[in-house]
What we know:
By secondary structure, this protein is of the alpha+beta class.
Amino acid sequence: MKFRITLPPSFPQTTVKGLLEEHWLVPRKIRHFLRTKKHLFVNGNSINWQSPVQAGDYIDVIFDQDDYPKKEIPLGQKELVDCCYQDEHLIIVNKPEGMKTHGNAPDEVALLNHVSAYAGQTCYVVHRLDKETSGLVLFAKNPFVLPILNRLLEDKKISRHYWALVQGGFRQKKVTYTDKIGRDRHDRRKRIVSPQTGQGAITHVTKLKSFPNQTLVDCRLETGRTHQIRVHLAYHDHPLIGDPLYHRHPKGRLMLHAYQLSFTHPFTAEILTFKAKSASFEQGLHDRIEWRSP
């Protein structure tokens, strides 16, 4: 597996070491492979870790089979994929509601399998959406970029926005929920607010439009706990409309859609922002309220 990456015009001068550690966020194990095997070249030349690199330089990185053992998964149906963007390293798709992001068993076919069929290669999940949630999902197209994208996610450098239709009205225009979230000991499908044993979770909520006993809100995640938006809003007496787990009287689809995803491409330094709609989400809104996309 070989990649050639040209440093963008805005790239500041640094060393090979600085490039891998600070700019590309390459994990230590992978840096070790590249260094000991001398599998990194700058403009076609073998280098040392303190060699300078600058804008316009092209970087070749090479990996052996034992660096990244080949992973095979069942391929799905490429025609089911609504692709919003792809390049050599990543692919972003608009997931429909009712489809899992990835299977729980090796032979289970889910969005990951369909995306791999569409891309013509095994892809890797960077973040997931609940089965009932629609919207934008980011996948890595190779194992080299996967930990780099994971690091961006962990460092809160991938911004994710959701539309949610919730029960009740909001007095405040904006509110941030920081309740810790943990597992529900009585129902393994569910999560609960758990101040003592839960993990930190941050959800920023902005009111978009109010309706009789319902509110359309924008939710921005800083963390990615399972069911985070659903748990936070339900805990504060604003369960999502159509939520089969956290709403007493669910009806129709879960009214949660990941409509925007933005981040800086780790190799091109380009700021990427994507937006996607969901026909079923908008139909759900029209069925309940008179609504226009913000």
